[in-house]
């Protein structure tokens, strides 16, 4: 790893170049020995093949192209590995040396979204967004990470639903590269990341107070940031951010789930005023109801269990929780948000 500008692209004594990205082209367990002895002894070595994209300057340590270690491997085994002695930028090294000299790994995950595949497929939501500055807090969309609590919720917000009891969710944000516009600076990537918050089941407006954070990505000045997480059924908000407030840039958000997530951006801060607001009234109070759990429910079947769920009702609106299977002490942890025109009317919670 390069720690300064002077370190970048400096060649080490072992032949590797500091601050340089190499591609992994193969990983194998290599059988050592010759003839029948290699089969009975069955000693194997974990090896990895790397390639310098420059097409030259190779590793010259153990198991490099001309090293004596290759005499421990039979000719047929070398042919299986595609071993060549050329200065083509490709070389083998042990996994132990790989861990010693390399500091970071970036993995490319191919995600199958085809409707015609017999293999595991994903539902993909793709949204374009941007971090933009404004002196008006309601219009500012560049609030920085959660360390900046006063401005964090001014960032773009995206809501999505998990519709299964539990689902594996893959989320990626990719920033637009600045290397095409040098006039904006040196073309360096912004440090970016995102947080995921669990919200009310019926939330349709932007968050203005922090809610339960269930997952977060790393923050790094990389072209893209990726997170895989398991989430329970419910509604969630993704907040993509730059690390520091005030930075501007465009990004692409992708959300992969097993079933459609209905992912969309939250753009409104509150219910809009319309021509009907004067006649029908406008919300005066906002109430959040959080039902945590229930206890002492009656058995509803011969096996001594029940499949309870909770309904929260307010002014003709209702929120229904997922069903909790086979329990008389359910843990709901469900929220509802109600914009109330008639605060005097009751809120009903029914299990």
UniProtKB/TrEMBL annotation:
Organism for this UniProt entry: Indicator maculatus
Domain Calpain catalytic: 1-111
Domain of life: Eukaryota
Alphabetical list of InterPro entries matching this protein: C2_Calpain, C2_dom, C2_domain_sf, C2_III, Calpain_cysteine_protease, Calpain_domain_III, Calpain_III, Calpain_III_sf
Active site per the UniProt annotation: 20, 52
Organism lineage string: Eukaryota, Metazoa, Chordata, Craniata, Vertebrata
A Pfam family annotated for this UniProt entry: C2
GO cellular component: cytoplasm
Gene3D superfamilies (alphabetical): 2.60.120.380, C2 domain, Cysteine proteinases
Gene Ontology molecular function, alphabetical: calcium-dependent cysteine-type endopeptidase activity
Listed transmembrane segments: none
Annotated protein name in UniProt: CAN5 protein
Family (UniProt): Belongs to the peptidase C2 family.
UniProt xrefs under SMART domains: calpain_III, CysPc
Domain C2 residues, every copy: 267-351
């Amino acid at each position: 790893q390069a720690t300064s500008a002077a370190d970048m692209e400096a060649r080490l004594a072992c032949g590797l170049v500091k601050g340089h990205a190499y591609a992994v082209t193969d990983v194998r367990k290599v059988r050592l020995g010759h003839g029948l002895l290699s089969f009975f002894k069955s000693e194997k070595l974990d090896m990895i093949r790397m390639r310098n994209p420059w097409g030259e300057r190779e590793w010259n340590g153990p198991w490099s192209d001309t090293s004596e270690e290759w005499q421990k491997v039979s000719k047929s085994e070398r042919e299986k590995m595609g071993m060549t002695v050329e200065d083509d930028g490709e070389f083998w090294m042990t996994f132990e040396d790989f861990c010693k000299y390399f500091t970071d790994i970036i993995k490319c995950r191919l995600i199958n979204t085809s409707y015609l595949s017999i293999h595991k497929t994903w539902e993909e939501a793709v949204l374009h967004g941007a971090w933009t500055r404004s002196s008006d807090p309601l219009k500012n969309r560049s609030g920085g990470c959660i360390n900046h609590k006063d401005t964090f919720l001014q960032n773009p917000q995206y809501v999505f639903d998990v519709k299964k009891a539990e689902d594996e969710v893959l989320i990626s944000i990719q920033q637009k590269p600045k290397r095409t516009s040098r006039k904006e600076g040196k073309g360096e990537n912004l440090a970016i990341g995102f947080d995921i918050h669990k919200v009310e089941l019926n939330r349709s407006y932007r968050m203005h107070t922090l809610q339960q954070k269930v997952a977060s990505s790393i923050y790094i000045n990389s072209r893209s940031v990726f997170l895989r997480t398991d989430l329970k059924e419910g509604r969630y908000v993704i907040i993509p951010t730059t690390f520091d407030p005030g930075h501007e840039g465009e990004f692409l958000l992708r959300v992969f789930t097993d079933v459609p997530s209905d992912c969309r951006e939250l753009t409104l801060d509150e219910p809009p005023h319309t021509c009907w607001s004067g006649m029908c009234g406008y919300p005066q109070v906002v109430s959040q109801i959080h039902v945590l759990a229930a206890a002492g429910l009656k058995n509803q079947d011969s096996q001594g269990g029940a499949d309870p769920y909770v309904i929260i009702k307010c002014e003709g609106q209702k929120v229904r929780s997922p069903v909790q299977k086979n329990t008389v002490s359910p843990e709901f942890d469900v929220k509802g948000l109600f914009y109330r025109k008639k605060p005097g009317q009751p809120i009903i919670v029914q299990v």
